[in-house]
Amino acid sequence: xxxxxxxxxxxxxxxxxxxxxxxxxxxxxxxxxxxxxxxxxxxxxxxxxxxxxxxxxxxxxxxxxxxxxxxxxxxxxxxxxxxxxxxxxxxxxxxxxxxxxxxxxxxxxxxxxxxxxxxxxxxxxxxxxxxxxxxxxxxxxxxxxxxxxxxxxxxxxxxxxxxxxxxxxxxxxxxxxxxxxxxxxxxxxxxxxxxxxxxxxxxxxxxxxxxxxxxxxxxxxxxxxxxxxxxxxxxxxxxxxxxxxxxxxxxxxxxxxxxxxxxxxxxxxxxxxxxxxxxxxxxxxxxxxxxxxxxxxxxxxxxxxxxxxxxxxxxxxxxxxxxxxxxxxxxxxxxxxxxxxxxxxxxxxxxxxxxxxxxxxxxxxxxxx
Length: 369
What we know:
Elements: E1 29-33, E2 44-47, H1 50-55, H2 63-72, E3 81-85, H3 96-106, E4 112-115, H4 121-131, E5 137-142, H5 155-162, E6 167-171, H6 177-187, H7 214-222, E7 226-231, E8 235-239, H8 249-271, H9 280-300, E9 306-307, E10 321-322, E11 326-330, H10 338-342, E12 349-353
Parallel strand pairs: 1-3, 1-4, 4-5, 5-6, 6-7
Antiparallel strand pairs: 2-3, 7-8, 9-10, 11-12
Helix pairs in contact: 2-6, 3-4, 8-9
């Protein structure tokens, strides 16, 4: 019997697909406190329930437990929470921003952040300043009387003065109400079709609606703050879901998630290729990667078809219809400077996207004959 094989004639090489980078879910919150059930070495730990926290020694009297109880009570229940530790004894007291900074170094899975315990206005400002440079968001609550007036001396008013886009304040008489708001914000962002949401009109189980007058509500809103009130003795709801700069939180988290998905998708192209040639076909691989990220955003309900109202971008002109809700394009390789080619910098990629937006109010005109 012949012992000759056929490898020299037909050679089959099996190559497995590259492993995609793990995606940040944008659906996990961090609650930082000073209870001694964790330590500076562990710093932060993930929990899927209050029972799991109890197993580590947390009790119903701990600020972290109380905040997590409201967090997990959200109608759109988040799957997990990260509990972080602040050491109040270290060097006359570790600052909140030092604790949050170390939590970010130790755990990359959280997006929302809430401080549970005795937190001063200066503490909030310091953490807000730090998170403004990160892909994360600070949730906080205020019961300052000044925030219900025209004065800008309360926590929400001061935050508006800073103009930060990653800080979301809720005026509430319920302790740890900001953790409840973070719970819905994280739990609602589960990535399923049409899962994109607006925070306005949402119910916060465990939080008592505040009995505010119309002028008090408007004063808080004028400072880009949020309230939890009851309308028509029936509807308990959050209003309006905005950050300190006046931008809607749902747009912030949606854009953060889209940018993250595009960044990692393009990194996957580089990591899983023998090489990406400096050609139009090579640049197209990054365009296709961005297309995939945008399509996921459409599936979630964050992007939608619409008319392009901005300036012309390559082959897209003002007034053109974005039929898919987005258009990703790359400049031609022939148009790139020689220095860019020598540095192996890809031709610029342009992603034009149309936000689906949300309706927050309706005007109805009734005509009777």
